[in-house]
Amino acid sequence: MIGFLKGKVEFIDGQYIVLDVNGVGYRVLVPSKIFSNAKLKEDLKLFTYTYVRDDTLDLFGFSSIDDLKLFEQLISVSGVGPKTAVSIFSIGSRSTIIEAVVKGDVSFFIAVPRLGKKNAQKIIIELKSKMGSLEELDLSEEADMETKEVLSVLKSFGFSSKEAQDAIKNIDKKAERVEEKVRLALKYLGK
What is the number of other CB atoms lying within 10 angstroms of the CB of residue 23? Predict the structure, then answer.
């Protein structure tokens, strides 16, 4: 299995990018956002999923490990293949997809070609339980990274995930730096 590829964009065709990694060209299917931002001869790093079935071997690439993890959750839903999952990323970012799952927004998913209402509902039902209480957290990309960092620090102090998430939900949203958020969360947990 290939975890990630880092190399120069050699060729762009349809939804595929060919990445030159030390003289070997890897053909990788990517979401439209990556595809439209890719430029020939520029460096690109993609976290990859290797898909093997019968006579097919495909690589699917994502700009972050979190996108890859969500992709893997999407393809774990029966009736959702890797190409459909990539198409879901083509109509929205990771945070938009998570928000659609949390809110039960079927219309978001049926906008994807080849994804009917039945499979859209299945995605929402199956992924909602896997995502836990993400709905309580700010889903913007930058805030998500900060939230993860604050969660990690609080867990390292011995607090459970639920306690840490509850503290984050209740701290002042004006706090900008991670250190300040941790301090406020610890103060909240000390009550």
Answer: 6
Query: What are the tens digits of pLDDT across the range 60-84?
Result: 999 999 999 999 999 999 989 999 9
List residues bridging with 26 in a β-sheet. Answer: 19
Query: How far are the Cα atoms of 53, 82, 93 from residue 140, in angstroms, in the given order?
Result: 35, 25, 10
The domain 65-132 is classified under which CATH number: 1.10.150.20, 3.30.70.100, 3.40.1350.10, 3.40.640.10?
A: 1.10.150.20
pTM, entire model: 0.69
- The CATH superfamily label for domain 4-62 reads Nucleic acid-binding proteins (2.40.50.140)
Q: How far is CA 158 from the centre of its chain?
A: 27
CA distance 56 to 191: 57
